[in-house]
Amino acid sequence: MSEFTVRRATAEDSPRLTRLVRRSGAYRGDYAAMVEGYQVGGAYIEHHPVHVATDAEGRVLGFYALLVEDAELDLAFVADSAQGRGIGRLLMEHMTGQARAAGLRTVRVVSHPPAEEFYLRTGAVRTGTVQPAGHVHWARPELRYDIA
To answer: Does the reported pTM lie above 0.85?
Structure first.
C-alpha cells in the first residue's frame, strides 16, 4: 500500500470529491437519490477533517470525512476503478488514527447497506439499524469502531 498517500483535503478538492460521490457504482438504481445533486463543498472540507488517498501521480482515489464533534464517520468513498486495492482499508486505518488523536473512544458509522461488509472487515461492529427517514427509503446498518 506504499504506493498510496493519505493527505488532508483542501477546498480545491471539492469538485473531485463531489464527482467521486456522484459516480459511485454503489449508488445506482434505488440508491441513486441519495447522491443526486450531492456536493462535497469547500466549506465542509475546511471545517471537518476530510482526508484523501492519492496515487503516485496525485490522483484522488478515495476519501473520508470524520465529524469529530459527533464522533461519526460522515463520508467514505473509494473510486469504483480503485476498489480492491487496499485504499478503503488504508483510509479506515487513517481515520481511526485521527479519531484516537482527537481523543475519541468510538466512531459511529451509519452505513450504506452494500458497504456494511466492508466496515465489518475493517474492524467495525454492528450496533443496530437506522430506520428510513426523509429521502432515504431503506433501513441502514449502524456500526461502531472502537478506538483503542
So the answer is: yes
